[in-house]
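Side project, low priority. Logging it here so it doesn't get lost.
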Amino acid sequence: MASTTQFLFSLPPKPPYLLSYSSPSKPRSINITCCLSIQQARNDQTTSSGSNALNGLRVAFAAGGTGGHIYPAVAIADELTIVNPTSELLFLGRPNSMESTAIPSAHFEFKPIPAVKLVRPLFSLRNLLLPYFLIKSITKCFTLLSKFEPHLVVGTGGYVSFPVCLAALLKGIKVVIQEQNSVPGIANRFLSLFADLVFVAFNSTVQSFPRKEKCVVCGNPVRLSLKNSVSKALSRLHFFPWLEKMEGSSEEIKVILVLGGSLGANAVNIALLNVYSQLLLEHENWFIIWQTGVESFNEMESLVRSHPRLLLAPFLHSMNMAYAAADLVVSRAGAMTCSEILATGKPSILVPSPNVAEGHQHKNAFLMADVAGSRVITEDELDSTTLGSAISEILVDERLLAEMSQRALNAAKPDASAEIAKHILSLVKENS
């Protein structure tokens, strides 16, 4: 198979939803521009500067490190531009990072800061210089905030947000934080002691914060594109154009969406690698959209055999269409992915990563099992047999599919970004 390719089967012409991907000798540079660009969605919204608008509102965002911290910040920022069109927004994050590419492509101003990452375990020798680098980062953030003079700073957790929010507190600027996970990380747990408001995704998360009266349960802000209704039939044609010529009822088709994350989930990829062929052989109306992750794509591409009902991609731009096309989602249990599964009402099989700090994904996954009936397979339990059995058990049971879908929709909070924007405006008004 050629070393540079878009996907594993021949379809003319190449559709626009896959990254152009090659295998360079140098470290990869991941372009995620389209992933967060929602300018069109903004333009489609009719906005007005009604009685709730605040002229000259300035808000700074501290977001970065992972998509789980970036996505909710961008969703909140977009909502602010809708409800308060004159808002001035500034994002602070690391240079040469995911956020340094994603934020400008979402049409927001971005300034780099020297963020400092805490190394685990806490008593590692690599943390000896942490105080020095933290002070250096806070000083830079202090300078940038002094120039921008925001009314409020929004932190979405992680080590990127920590120095920004500390600098804001030192300047006497109001700070709100948003926690995506079922249990908060170290940064948000500490910052919550001084924050004016703490936005959380789940009711149970409130118990993890010492100042419970500051918590507002509103769900996780999801991308605007996911809120737009997309036809399942059109979405499937987007990925499998030849379906238009297929005879028989399209209602019998079942689509499995496998999400390996932006970089990849090796355990999920290997488990699927050993069972995908059997699933497609035994079920002629089953299709698989498989996002391997950029880091894993070359290896998976060399091992997976071409099949007309299989689409292999390093990264999917059109996530709204991917969710719309799917009957079942197989994924890691990142907080934002879980929230997107709820918002789109999709039955899911979750494989929490054991490598995420503080066991966030395990807690997210089992909370999803409680509220949405998601199936959880730990990495210790994961193999091709376990995964294949779970997929088959769910997809052949229409009643179970409907029940899981309804439970997910019932647990979703699609208006999270609007509620957070409303609270931000109210908080600034109280002090203006």
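Brief comment: The CA atoms of residues 30 and 241 lie 27 Å apart.
Revisit when time allows.
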